[in-house]
Specification:
It contains eleven helices and eight strands. By secondary structure, it is of the alpha/beta class. The longest helix has 18 residues. The protein is globular and about 55 Å long.
Amino acid sequence: MTELYPPIDPYNEGKLPVSDLHTIHYEQSGNPDGKPVIFLHGGPGGGITPMYRQYFNPQKWRIIIFDQRGAGQSTPYAELRENTTWDLVSDIEKLREHLEIEQWVVFGGSWGSTLALAYSQTHPERCQGLILRGIFMLRQKELHWFYQEGASNIFPDAWQEYLKPIPVEERDNLISAYYKRLTSSDRNIRLEAARAWSIWEASTSKLIPSAKSIKRFGEAEFAEAFARIECHYFINKGFFATENQLLENAHKMSHIPGVIVQGRYDVVCPMISAWELHQKWQKAKFIVVGDAGHSISELGIRDALIEATDNW
């Protein structure tokens, strides 16, 4: 097994105003003269954790990680206004310019893979390569599978808890019903919905569910931003012009080298999406981890990602 690199502290942290409303928090760690890599966290709304630095050899990489709008230490917290995919793509460019980086490797999993694809198709000239995990393209079939019917058949026990905040008469459109509650003026209503939404994802993310992950996702401070921002993006269909935009525009980044790491038993982002992307992006190395689900911390996925960053 490939171990994570030892924990390290950032050598630089900062705040970057990206609009009149939003300021993003970013950090840099590793080697200031190393190969630049931008880490795009999941969710949207998930925020960053120190563990993300440990997927990169700190002697080799200049590791740049930031909290996307409304998440983590970025402000304002859990804010939905001026928070779209294209705002985030613009923020990545502003951060690149602020740090005076010409090109970088883009690393992202789950929603981070969605954002990485949107960024690389908008600014392909800035991408030296892509390292992606758990491909998610925010299409209706993907959303329906996880939030309406599909994954529910594999995790009926966890699904029962996910349904609890929603009255039976509103369950024909669960994303819409959750959005109504996650945007309520009543904080108690928001938090009940946020915890149920977030715990559902934590309960299904790993091949072997993790009580530690479920507890973290259920904490109010994390859950509110995570659930609100996710649901905001999903009810707005990712702010894409067409449902298949990322596949339709794959030719714009098909020349960029990359790696796709996908858990065979990923219930959150089933493997078909990664497979369909790979058909359009043959330059990418396609790695299927046979004993893993969705999470970046599962051993097989961890090994494949560290091998990808080591061999870049």
